[in-house]
C-alpha cells in the first residue's frame, strides 16, 4: 500500500509557482523526517529538500535553494513543497519520501524507506 500521495503538479511557464502536497497515511509520520526528490528524464533521482520531524530543520539542494521551501503540518500529516521561480530545469516528476527517526539532513534517496508515486511538474520556457 502506498502511504504517501503527492499532488499539486501541473504545467507552468518559467517563473511561475506551484505548491506540491504530500499526504501520509503512515501512523509513523510524526516521527519521520521527510524529503522531496525529483526524477528528470534521462537522469538519476535527485534530492531536492529535507525537513526534520518538527519542521524546524530544513536542507536544500543547491539547485533549488532560495526558490523552494519545504514545510510540514503534522496535524494534517502533510508535507509541502513551495516552488517559486520555476525553471525549465525543474521539469521532472516529484516524489516525497519519509525516513523514520533517528534521521538527519539527507538528500540521498537510499536513506528513505517510504515513497509516494510522484506528481509531474512541467515547466515551459
Summary keywords:
globular, 7-stranded mixed beta sheet, mainly beta, 4-stranded antiparallel beta sheet, 49% strand, 0% helix, 11 strands, 125 residues
- Summarize the helix and strand pattern as letters: EEEEEEEEEEE
Give the termini distance in whole angstroms: 37 Å
- Mean pLDDT across residues: 96
**Contiguous runs where pLDDT drops below 50 for at least 5 residues:** none
Total number of β-strand segments? 11
Question: For the report, how would you describe the main beta sheet?
Answer: 7 strands, mixed
Relative strand content: over 45%
Q: From the helix content, strand content and strand pairing, which structural class follows? A: mainly beta
What oligomerization state is this entry in? single chain
Count of helical stretches: 0
Helix content: under 10%
Global geometry = globular
Radius of gyration: 13 Å
Describe the model.
The chain is mostly beta strands. The protein is built from no helices and eleven strands. The protein has strands at about 5, 10-15, 20-25, 30-40, 45-50, 60, 70-75, 80-85, 90-100, 115, 120-125. The strands form two sheets. Strands 2, 4, 5, 6, 9, 10 and 11 form a seven-stranded mixed β-sheet that branches. A four-stranded antiparallel β-sheet has the order 1-3-8-7, with no helix packed on it. Strand 5 and strand 6 form a beta hairpin. The chain is globular. About 35% of the residues are buried.
